[in-house]
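Section 4.2 – Deliverable D4.2 (structural model, holo form)

The reporting period included a commitment to supply a predicted holo structure for the target in complex with S-adenosylmethionine. Inputs used:
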Amino acid sequence: MTFLEVIRIYKEKGLPEREALLLIGKIMNKKKEYILAHINEECPEDHLEEIIQLFEKRKNGYPLQYILGEVEFYGRTFYVEEGVLIPRWETEGLVDICKEYIHKYNLKRVLDIGVGSGVIAVTIAVECKSVQVYGTDISHKAISVAQKNAMRYSVDCDFRLGEFAEPFLDVFDNIELIVSNPPYVREGTVIQKELEYEPAEALFAGYDGLNFYREFFKRYNLEGKIVIMEIGDDQGNYLSSLTGGKVLKDLTSKDRYLVIDKLIS
Ligand SMILES: C[S@@+](CC[C@H](N)C(=O)[O-])C[C@H]1O[C@@H](n2cnc3c(N)ncnc32)[C@H](O)[C@@H]1O
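Output (structure tokens):
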């Protein structure tokens, strides 16, 4: 069977061609452009079974990024694996806002709470060379993937296991910007099939999805700091009243980011 034939069979079953090319590339250890250039060639017999297994896995909703082990974020490729959240496009907007404040106030120390794969922290470290980036997560897997991504881009981020800002209480007073894309989905929300493979602690935050924010804002004195967080599209009113912060919209005009500027009080 040729690559084209196997791709066609699965296209009819709903698997997009681009994904099929990427998956074949994964098995053959080649780029999708190579597979495209050899599309009419016979698929090696010993690889065909593996390819079909991956096609089936994907067809059953297993996320493409977990199969490939990589994801695109802010124009770069990052490692990702099961147990760590697959970054979303909205989070690129969070990085844009952070960069704006870092440049405006010439900030030097940034803490990312809930680093996950490290996309926010590592992107800031790469793009803002003079900033020291710290990061925390309650997941061992997340800390280890974030460290791999920092190494991939040769940046020196300090990632520590623990909740909220607790692992950095020794330097907390010196941190000028806290960024976070925390879990904010309501417990019990019916989620699409693909999300079922993602870690629950990265998504859910209590009956109204606000547990992380309530606890964070209760726990820390934020005078002298800027806090920039991603939020659920129906959480803006509550969170701006809770914190006095302003709410910004994402590219689809939904409430998405909370900004609290207490740098100069
Ligand atoms: C929505 S994911 C965001 C991951 C990554 N920053 C991104 O944007 O792709 C939330 C992350 O926060 C972590 N997390 C949840 N509660 C936490 C807490 N109290 N303190 C630190 N990390 C937490 C989860 O393990 C998860 O990795």
